[in-house]
Design goal:
GO biological process, one term: proteolysis
Helix content: 40-55%
CATH class of the largest domain: Mainly Beta
Number of helices: 15
Oligomer: single chain
Protein name: UBA domain-containing protein
Strand content: 15-25%
Strand order of the largest sheet: 6-7-13-8-12-11
Distance between the termini: 37 Å
Radius of gyration: 36 Å
CATH superfamily of the largest domain: Acid Proteases
Mean pLDDT: 79
Domain UBA: 377-417
Domain Peptidase A2: 250-290
Pfam family, one: UBA
Shape: elongated
């Protein structure tokens, strides 16, 4: 049967270890397990230990090392003290156990018990209450365990920060007093909040109730969306098509929200179109990506899509992140239809071409075109928290952008996406 045992390395209880063991585990294996959890016990021989349990001292001999928890009467939930015998005080060995009298054994046990009792430091309840007003000794012990757990595990601390950043800051500063006092303060605020909400005549209470109902409705809609339309939390693949200009293969971004079609200076040079640029149309263009210099306009050039050729006009911009952008002017002129059901772009009744898959899209263009509008809005601390939780940096960055830097929502969405992928 599985048991939960609390082990202390000294009688004062300053170092606690919680172990899950089997009632049939021998003391020899139990001590070996404790040596892994308590580093300063690692090099001490087994026979130098003794176990104190319910005012009973068990000296580790070759016989007692083979006994189990069940044999010694140690049950689930019990606490034991594992200590090292002082120099010169040895328990009876298997070779001379027959020569040791009962009175000698009692004297040794009495001395060890006296040493343990003298080492016990009983905390003064008044000291605890004066140091942490509003907390009982049991609550302080529980907070100490939580504090130590968060201090040792950065991932748990990062997840805990989502719920209480103030308490997480106390852990990072290694300030247990501030941790307890902040906990008491937060608890009092919550109690007062609930008390106000229970008063039907309080306007503040009604406002808090309305906020709680609003949060519950938002949480419900979020869970509903995650269950029935999870694709809403996945970045959408932009629409790109293949085309050829002067025999040079290019990938064009289809943007029905753009008023004019754009060609980058680098692409114009690569396709040998700079000779067609009318520099009388030079201007400065203000857009989402910032201020760009317009080098001029190409009034017409032939664009090959599949086996068909179409005359198109472009504005040429310097240092533009996207090679080619097909705007509304070209889409209207050639009566284009964006068919998302069949994933194709139709040019009137003459031609159609498939949109590129996510693997075929030039991501460097998207990063360059959208960096100024999105990348700068990512909170670096929240991004670091998601990376610490084990998520990939790019996925975490994209989800933070999509969730408006809401760390809790981004973590929830990433976790749901990971679970959905693992189920597949």
């Amino acid at each position: 049967m599985k048991m939960h045992i609390t082990v202390s390395s000294d009688a004062s209880g300053t170092f606690l270890v919680h172990l899950d063991v089997n009632e049939d585990m021998e003391m020899e294996n139990f001590i070996a397990l404790c040596q892994l959890e308590i580093p300063h016990y690692a090099e001490i021989p087994n026979k130098n230990f003794c176990i104190s349990h319910n005012q009973r001292l068990i000296i580790m001999t070759s016989t007692s090392l083979k006994k189990t928890f069940k044999d010694l009467g140690i049950c689930d939930g019990d606490a034991v003290v594992l200590t090292v015998l002082k120099n010169g005080t040895q328990g009876p060995s298997s070779s001379n156990s027959a020569t040791v009298t009962g009175s000698d054994t009692n004297q040794v046990n009495s001395k060890l018990i006296a040493d343990l009792v003298n080492a016990i430091k009983v905390p003064n309840a008044s000291n605890v209450s004066s140091r942490f007003p509003g907390l009982k000794k049991r609550e302080v012990d529980q907070l100490q365990l939580t504090f130590n757990m968060l201090k040792k595990d950065p991932r748990k601390r990062s997840a805990f920060r989502n719920f209480s950043p103030v308490l997480a800051d106390c852990v990072e500063r290694n300030d247990f007093d501030a941790f307890c006092n902040t906990y008491v303060s937060e608890r009092e605020k919550e109690i007062n909040r609930r008390r106000v909400m229970m008063d039907p005549t309080s306007a503040e209470g009604q406002r808090l109730i309305a906020e709680q109902i609003e949060r519950e409705n938002i949480d419900f809609s979020h869970q509903f969306a995650m269950e029935h339309m999870p694709e809403a939390y996945i970045p959408v693949t932009m629409l790109y098509i293949r085309m050829r200009i002067n025999g040079v293969e290019c990938k064009a971004f289809v943007d029905s929200g753009a008023q004019v079609s754009i060609l980058s200076e680098a692409t114009a040079k690569r396709c040998n179109l700079m000779r067609l640029v009318d520099k009388r149309f030079q201007a400065t263009v203000h857009g989402v990506g910032g201020v760009k210099k317009m080098l001029g306009k190409i009034h017409t050039c032939l664009v090959q899509i599949e086996q068909h050729f179409f005359p198109c006009n472009f504005d040429v911009l310097s240092d533009h992140g996207i090679d080619i952008l097909l705007g509304l002017d070209i889409l209207r002129r050639h009566q284009c239809t964006i068919d998302l059901k069949n994933n194709v772009l139709k040019f009137s009744d003459s031609a159609s071409t498939s949109f590129l898959s996510d693997a075929e899209i030039p991501h460097k263009e998207l990063e360059a075109g959208e960096a100024s509008a999105t990348t700068g809005t990512v909170d670096s601390e929240k991004l670091a928290s998601l990376v610490a939780l084990g998520f990939e940096e790019e996925a975490a960055r994209a989800m933070l952008i999509q969730c408006g830097n809401d760390l809790e929502m981004a973590a929830s969405n990433l976790l749901s996406t990971a679970n959905s992928t693992s189920n597949l």
